[in-house]
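ping. complex inputs:
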Amino acid sequence: MNFSKLLQISMAATLSLHLNRFASLCPPYSPLFFLNRSLTCSISLPSHNTRAISSPTRRNPPRSFCVSASASQESNNHRGGSDEIYEVIVVGGGHAGCEAALASARLGAKTLLLTLNIDRIAWQPCNPAVGGPAKSQLVHEVDALGGEMGKVADRCYLQKRILNLSKGPAVRALRAQTDKREYAFEMKKIVESAPHLSIREAMVTDVLVGKNDSVEGVQTFFGMKFYAPSVVLTTGTFMSGKIWVGRTSMPAGRAGESASHGLTENLQKLGFETDRLKTGTPARVDSRTVDFSGMEPQHGDEEVGWFSFDPDYHIEREQMCCYLTRTTKETHQLIKDNLHETPTYGGWVEAKGPRYCPSIEDKIVRFQDKESHQIFLEPEGRTVPELYVQGFSTGLPERLQLPLLRTLPGLENCSMLRPAYAVEYDYLPAHQCFRSLMTKKIEGLFFSGQINGTTGYEEAAAQGIISGINAARHSDGKSLIVLERESSYIGTLIDDLVTKDLREPYRVLTSRSEHRLLLRSDNADSRLTPLGRDIGLIDDVRWKIYQDKQARILEEKNRLKTVRISGGDLAVEVAEVSSQPVKESSTLESLLKKPHVQYKLFDKHGYGNALLSRMEKECVEIDIKYEGFIIRQQTQLRQMAQQQHSRLPEDLDYFDMTTLSHEAREKLSKVRPQTIGQASRVGGVSPADITALLIILESNRRKAKERTQHQIITSTLAGENQEMSETSRNQTIRS
Amino acid sequence: MKENTLVLNKDERLGDGEVSCAEPVPSSSTIAAIVTSLGGPPGAVGIVRLSGPSAVSIAGEVFRPMSRKRRKGVRWWPNSHVVEYGEVLDSHGNVIDEVLVVPMLAPKSYTREDVIELQCHGSEVCLRRVLRACLDAGARLAEPDEFTIRAFLNGRLDLSQAENVGKLVTSKSMAAADAALADYRGSSIVMGGFSFMVKSLRAQCIELLTEIEARLDFDDEMPPLDINLVTDRIHKMLQEVDGALETANYDKLLQSGVQIAIVGRPNVGKSSLLNAWSKRSEAVAMGADVIVMTVSAAEGWTSEDDRLLERIHSNKIATSSTSPVVLVVNKIDFASSCAWVDTLSRSFRKYVFTCAVTGKGISNLESAVVELVGLNKIPAGGRKWTVNQRQCEQLVRAREAFVRLQASIEEEIPLDFWTIDLREAAMALAQISGEDISEEVLSNIFGKFCIGK
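pong. complex structure:
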């Protein structure tokens, strides 16, 4: 980091403190304030530490909270509106916004959450579910870092199932059907009661940018200005949102909720590239009008899995049932007859929708030979009659939607509560962000969630927690945190977003992770909780729970290595289950490595360890059973990581590099990757380009080295001269 | 702006999983290549060079020093810049060549990595075999000029040379583009050939990956996977790779010829046999593919022949060679009866009667040799392509992945683990290592299946 940047950060960092103190004297950014700021700088430079010491808030959040609160209250009495100054502002109260605001506030940053509608905090506008393949890994990871999503999903589930149970430990995925209202209510309660966190309804229309392209705050539609050195934008589908039913459209972020206007244009003025995406949600029907008798019921698991690693949240509740029905010939005919009435085939909506979330008309057009498609009916809550008709989103006009629903067996007499609709919105291709989710153009400005082109609550939450952490750290003058691609699904998600030129809504999928065997649900805590602890989001109680768990697992693995059995019922059953002979005096470990042998078998024959929970036993089983595979991937990763993680200088001029292909020069200039590994994943960059790049870097490094050597020599020479002259001066004085 | 890349895969349960990102190391693989020129008349000495972190261990696997021949199981650890004399063995333990080994350990080497140079006999045959042995032992075939590039990246060359290296890389990528174009043209005109086969294999891998991975993400929307069908297809692919490798082996023989040692007492007609055969003989007896023992029909089986045969056998045992021995009974025109041959049938894989002077029986000898080295398995005209060392290496990598995959299937290891080796095979077959196949699998999933809610 160069000196001016350093200066700038420490200036920004000192800002809030002195503002509190001088708030009554000087309005923000008045000439007086600048004077004050420059004064502070000259005193507190050159280190961040000065600031950390002068701000007890960060050292010890719970205690100092009282201090800072009383301080701000005091200034409140003197002059209203001083609470316009925060350390972090989060714009948007969806799944990204909630995690960001909570993470930031929990790190002790004075945080403001601005949302269009407080009653819609943490709303699930589409399917009433959390988790599923790859998504559940995200939820576990968010939880392991100290996030909230997993806990709330564990508290509000209607049904839980573990998917892919027999397909391998890395792809096992937990999915919960959730009670939509309860979920939003629970999350809202947590956000509302979090210390350091304020909430305000507002429509943000502009980002305030100061000198040196660093963010200073936001401005709202009604003319309010809120100041903070870090701002997180989580605009969801609201930024210039427009919803469609058939040919009819209206500006809206979601049905019944107004869109936000003006922000896109102002971001464009700041030099950001924006584009448009589209997504949709199916109709909701009244469950009291549905005949379930002919449908296939889908029950939850008897043994319930959990997202959170905190056992305090493992409270079982009664489960509800989902139902399966199918499209019929009539469904297909009705759609084929009315294709011209849909936005995509009628051609009046251009924005791209996600491939993995196709509308029913897309499915029928693209897969002509498939006679029927599965449709799931999922309850939206315990107390409401609404059913979510999964797999049935459509762009057809409303007048055709009910007849279409009524072609489904069991729904012949249904009544529709809400029509299906599509929504178009602005997003900012995420190559404009670093992997810390801070934008490259404006320092202190962070993007998370659908604004980065993703879909999904889990994807949003994952980005939210990272941007929340980094926003708080940025305000505090600390280094930002990046999760490497190989560390987590969160890292994989962000790496994909910022390096690949994505032009459709991005959803995380298991096949996106190259090293997924290492990125499992069961080890999300042992991968990320130590980091969460370092960052400051894992409290002592949770840390103790974590450490005890790891100790139990380690101890159990050692026990299995040492306990040997000879013959007996266990040996007989192991031989039977695995169709492999069991040697005399085999260790329990060696038995567990045999095909089809599970830890449960030890329990059954009295060789299990009663001190371990079901999840802990699973961890032990996976570690032992798949040791060979895990070690192999680990080795591959280690070999690769050394090169992949070497960093690229920030000021590279790729257009100058004539040894790179033209395409590589263009793409690299646009994406500006931070590491060699990232560069190699940019589309259009070949292995030969990477070699050429390495060579250029090495040449540059040597040139720079020569220069510094040269400088050292010159300055040494100059120093000698000076010394000589000083000596002579001294001599003069003495004489 | 300061960023801290805090986490790599640091899994407490895995123990020491941390990777330090301190020093950027440009390469972690060990590369090998023939560094003396090929194609012209054979020089007296040719050099195979190994460079990289595993150069010593790879050399240790293929090289057996003469001085410590009997100390089995002791890991070879060379003294830097001290020449050693010994033999190079192939993966089956057959002696290929006698060599001088020049170890140059890091950083005192051309590339500043551990470098081992194997000075072999200069003929192309020897060099290719030694290189193949190194590749089998885990080295990767060096890209053109990769030694120089490494030398530069590791700080060995000075700055003025950097520009040349840069140009070198550019020309390489251009050549690659040309080659790709040629390949593209080739494959559209001749729908056959090696690259077509590899492409089809790769496509099959990706299709299987698609089938499996689609079900990982969209389990409840798809019909269950037909495991038997998948298993069958994997077996079929393995067979295809094996077939291709057999072809590659045939190709290798075509390129480097079959080494035949002709042995026999003086005056039994070895040189006339050689002349009659009219083929150039490299005559490195200990590394021969086939040993032809020649006796004279006129004199019959003599006690001297007995001793010679004994020596051949003891030699074979000493070098653990499996080369077949053929008996040639020459000067057949001078003999009336050769009934004694039947008593020797246990010592020889085949016997052939020839008359080198008239050329009688030479074609029989040829077909006997062809049969013994396994060339007859490939039908004439069935082979339309040539396989080079690089392609062969990819095939070997794909094959290993398939073999592991089969083991996983046999042990009934869960489906997700299959994708690890399928991916490996597909990447090997993609020829450009590291080519991103994940996007291709994803597009395939969405293109092929009706999924999504």
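Chain B touches chain A through 69 residues (CB under 8 Å).
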